[in-house]
Write a structure and sequence with these properties.
Layout: E1 6-9, E2 12-13, H1 19-30, E3 35-43, E4 48-55, H2 57-74, E5 90-99, H3 103-120, E6 125-129, H4 140-144, H5 151-155, E7 176-180, E8 185-191, H6 196-206, E9 211-212, E10 233-234, E11 241-248, E12 253-260, H7 268-281, E13 286-292, H8 297-310, H9 319-330, H10 340-343, H11 345-350, H12 362-370, H13 378-401, H14 410-445, H15 452-493, H16 499-524, H17 530-562
Parallel strand pairs: 5-7, 6-7
Antiparallel strand pairs: 1-4, 1-5, 2-4, 2-5, 3-4, 8-12, 8-13, 9-10, 11-12
Helix pairs in contact: 1-2, 2-3, 6-7, 8-9, 13-14, 13-15, 13-16, 14-15, 15-16, 15-17, 16-17
Length: about 575
């Protein structure tokens, strides 16, 4: 199973006052299956609305196209006035990588969007940022120079031929910039001061643009200039960071307000640490921070792992615990409660496809399994048993990382615990996925079969659903087998007082493999594609045999330690 690719789209529409018009645009976005509308932020003064939605690339691009099309129908740029620079009904439409997708891939999707919109809509489209086809067009401000009013003249000049769409002025819709850019994080760090001047001093230390260099006194001294007479700047500590100090009356404190424009260059936790260091050197303290808007999951996990490593603690703990460490270390809950379910993009998406079984408590899960319902069945239980088995391996790794006298080995065991956590999370996902796979078969069986065409469609749907229901337990087998690497290492190298736990982990891992193997065999036997059935069954047989051998190997190691 490949991890789901997630892309965010943040189009800006030139309407911020008429909510009926805005709703027509957001309605077409929400009409696309697989897209989640996260935020609609209208601005009356700017007469502009920023919309945020997320999903897999294909539906996101489809939703973006429909939104651009609808905006061109319901917004008339000839009547538009607002404080923000703009050149089109859809002014900008950036695509942003969120998870499991590279910037290069997002650039290709941006170009696909531009090509489709340029072909079907009578609007000029320019590509910007990472998708730009000219170096000077990387900067959105360059493309938008002169705004809507300058378009007739610009489009008449060869150098302003758009990337897609006609090189002629569309008076109603204007022009649109489509781009691929990094995720931008709006982030504020709290200081134990009310002084804006002191907060600005920290902001100048941190931001990439730094401060103007002066001779003698850094505040009142004469400005140092280069040979062209331009002020010389002393760069700040963090690349791709814009920052300024301000006072927040609501909280009674000064903050460093930052935009992190490239979180690969400067991750969230590094920006916080730079502020903390600068504040300390200036006699202040960074007491906490706040995130404005949403954040990708990996940003929080990277922050949590960073602070755990600073403490020389194992990073192989649950995702929830890593996030908790990040929240506490960054002080994200100092001013208002920080709810990961509302602030992390991937968690917001889970609201649409909740893991029903995993959200149950142990008793409810057991009761559901023991009920007259045929799902969850052996496949879900096999995946869950596998998750428990490798969890025991991760537990031994974490206990070993904190064992007295083994301080110099904490990182070794932390790495093993991380591997265990990854396998545990992957197996847990299969608990609900196995039940979903079974339900797909039931849905296919219930399809109508009155005509030959319906019979053919139904037969194809049953075959595809059964194949998927075979692949899921096979994946459980693969993960269960990989679990032995962690479990065997902990039986051999881990805390000897926990050897029996590693042994139980091995028993669970084998049960997961063998239990899933039964599901592979029974589902494969129903497949029409005999080649696929034979191939997957043969691979599964080899995995089952390997699991038997590894279980015995681990148990032999454990028995020797237990019998000492």
């Amino acid at each position: 199973m490949t991890k789901k690719q997630l892309v965010e789209c943040v189009p800006n529409f030139s309407e911020g006052r008429d909510m009926a018009v805005i709703k027509q645009i957001t309605d077409v976005i929400e009409s696309v299956e697989g897209v989640k509308l996260l935020d609609v932020d209208p601005g009356r003064a700017t007469n502009r609305t920023v919309v945020t939605f997320v999903g897999e690339p294909e539906p996101v691009v489809r939703a973006a196209f429909l939104a651009i099309k609808k905006a061109s129908e319901v917004i008339d740029m000839r009547k538009h006035k607002g404080e923000h620079p703009r050149m089109g009904a859809t002014d900008v439409c950036p695509l942003i990588p969120i998870s499991n997708i590279s910037m290069e891939e997002v650039v290709e999707w941006a170009r696909k969007l531009g090509e489709m919109a340029g072909r079907e809509l009578e609007i000029p489209f320019y590509l910007y940022e990472f998708a730009a086809t000219k170096p000077e067009w990387k900067n959105l401000a360059t493309i938008r120079a002169g705004e809507y009013e300058a378009l007739p003249d610009k489009l008449a000049r060869p150098e302003w031929k758009p990337d897609f769409g006609p090189a002629r002025f569309n008076a109603k819709a204007g022009a649109t910039a489509i781009g691929a850019r990094d995720f931008l994080i709006a982030y504020n760090v709290n200081l134990n001061t009310t002084s804006v001047r002191r907060a600005n001093s920290v902001a100048f230390d941190v931001r990439e643009n730094g401060r103007v260099k002066r001779e003698g006194d850094p505040i009142t001294g004469p400005i140092v200039r280069d040979e062209k007479g331009e002020p010389v700047r002393v760069p700040g500590a963090c690349k791709a960071v814009k920052a300024i100090g301000w006072y927040i009356e609501e909280y009674g404190i000064a903050q460093i307000s930052m935009n992190l424009t490239n979180i690969r260059e400067t991750p969230l936790h590094i920006a916080f640490e730079a502020c903390r260091k600068s504040a300390l050197e200036r006699g202040m303290r960074a007491t906490g921070s706040e995130l404005v808007g949403l954040v990708p999951l990996e940003v929080m996990l990277d922050a949590g792992r960073y602070f755990l490593r600073q403490q020389e603690r194992s990073t192989g703990i649950s995702e929830e615990e890593v996030i908790k460490i990040a929240v506490k270390s960054l002080g994200l809950d100092e001013l208002t409660p920080f709810d990961p379910a509302k602030k992390i993009i991937e968690y917001r998406l889970q609201e649409d496809t909740p893991d029903r079984l995993l959200n149950m408590n142990l008793r409810s899960f057991a009761n559901e399994t023991a009920s007259e319902s045929i799902a969850p069945g052996g496949g879900s239980i096999a995946a869950y048993v596998g998750a428990l088995g490798v969890s025991l391996g991760a537990m031994v790794a974490n206990l070993s990382a904190h064992r007295r006298g083994w301080d110099d080995r904490w990182e070794e065991f932390s790495n093993w615990a991380e591997k265990g956590q990854e396998l545990k999370d992957a197996l847990l996902k299969l608990v609900d996925e196995d039940t979903r796979a079974f339900n797909r078969i039931i849905e296919a069986v219930r399809l109508p079969k009155n005509t030959e065409a319906e019979k053919s469609t139904r037969a194809q749907a049953i075959e595809e659903a059964t194949q998927y229901a075979t692949e899921i337990p096979f994946r459980t087998m693969e993960l269960g087998l990989k679990s032995f690497e962690v479990i065997r290492a902990m039986a051999t190298e881990g805390n000897p007082n926990s050897a029996s736990d590693a042994g139980v982990g091995a028993l669970c891992a084998r049960a997961a493999v063998q239990g899933a193997y039964l599901n592979v065999r029974i589902n494969a036997s129903s497949l029409k594609s005999k080649n696929f059935a034979a191939e997957i069954t043969e691979k599964a047989s080899r995995i089952a045999a390997q699991a038997d051998l590894l279980e015995q190997e681990v148990l032999e190691i454990v028995r020797k330690k237990v019998d000492k």
